[in-house]
Write a structure and sequence with these properties.
This protein has about 190 residues and is an alpha/beta fold. Helix content is about 20%, strand content about 30%. The relative contact order is 0.19.
């Protein structure tokens, strides 16, 4: 007779997480956004620009919800400054692989927080000759905004809380959660 094994801790059912949006709520909202984007860009070929790493899951689901021809590209950018605040100084870590002059660009971002980095990115894309630059964001944390950026397609507005899941991480953890949750105590593992 073998001793029964202790239950393996689960990331998906972690008691330190307070669910905010379920996987079903997220998918329903993404389907709505995809239909809206397809309607607004009818007859055009927008380039979806995913901001790595956090937006990759949202981008993947969103592009499958857009029933039209789209292109996809990725950029990785980092902000300098204190660990909890963006200084607005931005370094492009991974740049575009294609020219964007004359293209309609739809930035796909996981969360809009201070707006400093996105403001820089939008101006940068305009300076490269993009025909238009719009923003699709899964989450909007308006309370922390330092620079306004127009969010053309928004999933959800959230309070000033530290959220994880569905691509958003805490020290590279929780990105794989199928839902979005608030971390109750960030000092706990």
């Amino acid at each position: 007779m073998s001793a029964s094994a202790a239950p393996v801790p689960s990331e998906f059912n972690n008691e330190n997480l307070e669910p905010m949006f379920s996987a079903e709520q997220i998918q329903t909202r993404i389907a709505e956004l995809g239909a809206e984007i397809a309607r607004d860009y009818a007859g055009r070929n927008p380039l979806l620009l995913g901001v790595l790493k956090g937006a990759f899951i949202f981008l993947s689901d969103l592009m499958r919800a857009i029933d039209m021809r789209v292109g996809v590209e990725f950029m990785a950018i980092s902000s300098y400054g204190e660990s909890t605040r963006s200084s607005g100084e931005v370094k492009i870590v991974k740049d575009l692989d294609v020219p964007i002059e004359g293209r309609d660009i739809l930035i796909v971002e996981d969360i809009v927080d201070t707006g400093l980095t996105l403001s820089y990115l939008m101006a940068n894309l305009h300076s490269r000759g993009a025909s238009s630059v719009k923003l699709a964001a899964l989450l909007n944390k308006q309370e922390r905004r330092l620079r306004e950026v127009p969010i053309d397609y928004l999933g959800f507005t959230i309070p000033d809380a530290f959220v994880v899941g569905y691509g958003l991480d805490f020290a590279e953890r929780y990105r794989n959660l199928p839902y979005i949750a608030i971390i109750k105590d960030p000092t706990r593992d």
